[in-house]
Each structure stands twice: as structure tokens, then as C-alpha cells.
# Entry
Amino acid sequence: MGRYFKIFICSLAIICCYADELTGKDYRLWYNSPAKVWEEALPLGNGHLGAMLFGNPTDELYQLNDEALWSGGPSEWNNPLTKEHLGEVRQAIGNRDYKKAGDLWKKYGQGPYTARYLPLANMRLKFDCEDDVSEFYRDLDISEATASVKYKSGDVVYTRKSFISNPDSVMVVRLTADKCHSLSFRILLDTQLRTTSTTARNASLTLSGDAPVYVANRAYDPRQIVYGAKGEGLTFEVEVRAVVNGGSVKAVGDSCLVVTNADDVTLLLAAATNYEAADVAPSLSRLSPSKIVDRRLAVAEKKGYGNLFVNHVADYQNLFNRVALSLGSRIDRSDCPTDRRLRMFASDDSDQGLVELYYQYGRYLSIASSRPGGLPSNLQGI
# Structure
């Protein structure tokens, strides 16, 4: 009995060591060119705030989403005819008349058209770059939920690393260069929604706006986008602050921050809406997006980049590292750009490492799209 127990303990130790080795694997989607279309951009999210990063070295775009930014407000979305005709639908199914069942359900079972999920804003970084760009690299590291861009311009190597923290509720962008005073760029915010104000002050840029009360679901609808009176639709605010080392930052007008000759820069971005609950109209909400954003940024700025990064990785890996997967791949193509690996896989499916990466990427997206206390994932993720 003792011998079998020792064998069990030894086997368990080996399994645990192997599992630790697997959870320590480096999972990356990486590319040697910027994204040209939305499908090629890389997603970040903390379950509440989401971003798509395109990786352009001189004209970066962060497309931002908030989980709660929808058109419209609370209403009665149930169809009162459903209960009356449910028996007919069931009978049609029982008779295997599925077309009739579908027609009945479409007529009596579906509720009315509800609302549209809306884009929040865009953050744009426009860089002063007179020299050609070379040695370009961008990635999404799903082992720690970060996205990076690295390139060379002239004799300077530039790097930016981005993540969206769940514990601190901010997006963080860290920009560095391997030579002092090399970072000069502009920061801008814009939105497709109705803007109520834009303010640039000292080292912060703020965008406020509101959502439509109605957005059409089909092109033939004569009412495509309808805005109500102030406060009738959800309100939102986005603010970005620049923490600059070794250079300067100043506001230009009401819509732009200019960073000049910095050594490194940390951008902190927070966003919020006045969504309180599914049954609370925006006009009755007690929440102030401005106060929420100010509080989050004040705390994040005080913590600093190092603490924000450590908190983010620990929180994310507490979920991500729960599952390890090895399919026993005998080849390693991790040194190939991910888009090239996908093309190769179409004719040669021996790259089991890509299958592992795909599986873990799905888990990453689930973690990034929804967290406890927030809204469930939708078709757009967040």
C-alpha cells in the first residue's frame, strides 16, 4: 500500500510540474505589419471597457467600447401575444411543420426591436515621424493580456504597450524610446455620437456626449438615428491623462494634447456612462460619468504604471492560468507571423501549437468581454 501511495505522490508531482510548465507558456498573436481593416486589429478588454488596436506606427487608433452604451432606454419588450399562441407553435412542431412553427413564432413570439449597441469613442495618437519605419512588430500577448507595438524610425526604437485593467478600471498605454527626448505626438479623442463637450486642460483631454434614443435596425427605416432632449439618452464621458517624463505636455484648443520631446509617457484612459440598471431610465439615473472617471483616474495616477501593470497581470492570470492545454505538437511555428501560420494551416494542419493558441485565444476573449458584476458579453464582445 505504501509503495502505491509513493507512486501516486510522485505521479501527482510530475503532473503538477507539467501543468506549471504549460501555464507558463507564452501565447502571442503577432504580426509584422499594422492592421488595415477592423478584423486585423487586436482586442483588449476588462469586461467593461474594450478597445481595438490597429498598430499604425505613426497614426495609431484605439476604437473604444463601453459595455453599457446602448441607444434607447427601459421599455416593455415582452410580446403579450406569445402566451396566447404558444400552443399553436408547439402543435406545429409536433406535426413537424417547422415552416408554420417558424412563421407563427416570428409573428407572435418575437418581441419588438429593442436597441443598438453603440461605439463609444476613438483615441488617436499622431506621431511626428519624418524617417521611414522599419523592423515593425505588433502583438497581442494573451498570457498577460497586453498589446505591444515596436518599430524603428531613423536611429530610434519606439515601443508602446497597452492593457485594460480590471482591478483599476483604466486603459494604460506606456510609450518609450531607446533615446532620450524622442517622443513627440498628439493625442485626440472623437466619437460618432453626439458630442456635448470637449475639454483639453493641462495634461488631460475629456470628451462628453450622449446616445440616441433610437437607431434603426434596417436601412429602409425613415428614422435612422434619433436624438432626444438632453438626458433622455444615456450620457457618457471619456478622459485621457498624459503622465510625461523628461518632456512637456500642453493642451491645444479644446480637443488636443501635444507631447513634446519626452523620454517616456504613460497614458491613462477611463470611461463611464450613467447606466444604472436595466429598469432605470437615463433621465432618472443617479450616476455621474464625470465623477466616476475622475475617481478612477485619480487613483490610477497615484498608483503609477508599475503597480497598475502588476495588479492587471495578477488579476488576469488568476483566471487565464486555470487551464492548460497541450496537443503534443512536434513542430514549432511560433516564429512565424500569425496570419502566415493561418495560411499555412489551410494546407498543412500539423501545427497543433496554432490550435492551442486558438483555444486559449477564445478563453482570452471571454475573460476580456465579461467579468462578475458587469453585463454579459454581446455579439461585439463588450
